[in-house]
Specification:
2 domains; 118 residues; 3 strands; 4 helices
């Protein structure tokens, strides 16, 4: 995720200082969430072996589900950043999110019935 290890003396107030038996051993500087999103997108591209924009629709939906689970859409401009990486519109990303929600709801219900109109 792009965290940085520091000595406790280098720690700023927003860093996490890790201690063992009362002694500060190490500090961790966590990246800003927007930087983390860039790291996650890069990792997903490596995992798929090509730019995310080149993936098919089903693979892009899977990427959106993964990103949702990792909190990507709680980041300011997260939807826009993901849409750009996937080569789709924000509207499409929202559709993928809605589709994922519908699939989870069906799975919880054990719903195997066809959808009804109206």
């Amino acid at each position: 995720m792009g965290g940085q290890l520091l000595t406790p003396e280098e720690a700023r107030p927003d860093d996490v200082v890790l201690a063992w038996e009362g002694a500060d051993l190490l500090a961790v500087r966590l990246p800003q969430l927007s930087e983390s999103l860039d790291h996650i997108l890069a990792a997903l591209e490596r995992a798929h072996g090509r730019p995310l924009a080149e993936l098919d629709r089903k693979a892009k939906q899977s990427v959106v589900r993964t990103l949702e689970a990792r909190g990507a859409f709680s980041v300011r401009h997260g939807v826009e950043t993901v849409a750009t990486a996937l080569g789709v519109s924000r509207f499409t990303v929202y559709n993928y999110l809605n589709y994922a929600d519908e699939q989870r709801a069906k799975a919880r219900r054990g719903d195997r019935r066809p959808e009804r109109d109206g």
